Amino acid sequence: MSSVPNQFKYTKEHEWVEAKEGSAIVRIGITDFAQGALGDIVYIQLPKVGQIVAAGAVCGEVESTKSVSEIFAPVSGKVVAISNDLDSAPEAINSDPYGAGWIAEIELSGSSDELLSAAEYEGLTA
Questions:
Q1: Which among 5, 14, 9, 4 is positioned nearest to 113, based on CA atoms?
Q2: Rounded CA separation 5/107 (Å)
Q3: Domains recognised in the chain with CATH numbers
Q4: Does the structure show a pLDDT above 90 at 12?
C-alpha cells in the first residue's frame, strides 16, 4: 500500500500539493503511488522558474526504466522554485516522494478547490 500523508492535497493524476502556512506558495510533487507505478526514475524534466502553469496542464516529464510520464500542474500559478537536486539525483522521487523528491514550488494565482483530500485520493488508489 502506498503512503498518503494527510496534510497534503492530491490530484486524480497522482500529484500532491503541500500548502505553506500563511503563504500563497505551494510545493508539488508526484505521489508514492505514481512513483511506484513508474518504477526506477532515471530522468526528470522540471518546469522552468518563472513559467506560468495552469492546473491540469503539462508542466514536466518523468522518465523511468518502464516509461515516460507527463507531470501535470496540480494548481495554477507561477513557478518560483524547482528542486535542482533532481537533475543529478532523480531517484530521490522513488526514495522520498514527499520530501527530497519534491519537484517545484508554485505561487498560486487561482483557487485550489479541485484538489482531493488524502481520504479521497486513497479511494482512487485502493
A1: 9
A2: 22
A3: 9-110 (2.40.50.100)
A4: yes
Q: What kind and span of H or E run contains 60?
A: strand 58-64
Predicted model pTM = 0.93
Cα 3 to Cα 67: distance, rounded to the nearest angstrom: 22
Total number of residues shown for the chain: 126
- Residue 112 near residue 26 (C-beta atoms within 8 A): yes
| DSSP H or E segment with residue 1 | none
The bridge status of strand 52-53 relative to strand 41-45 is unpaired
Band of residue 1 on the pLDDT scale cut at 50, 70, 90: low
**What's the grid cell of residue 105?**
514550488
Any idea which residue has 526504466 for its cell?
65
CA dihedral sign of residues 100, 102, 107, 108: negative
Among the listed residues 52, 38, 19, the one whose alpha carbon sits nearest the alpha carbon of residue 93: 38
Q: What single-letter DSSP state applies at residue 38? A: H
The pLDDT value given to residue 90: 97
- Helix (DSSP H) and strand (DSSP E) numbers for the chain: 4, 9
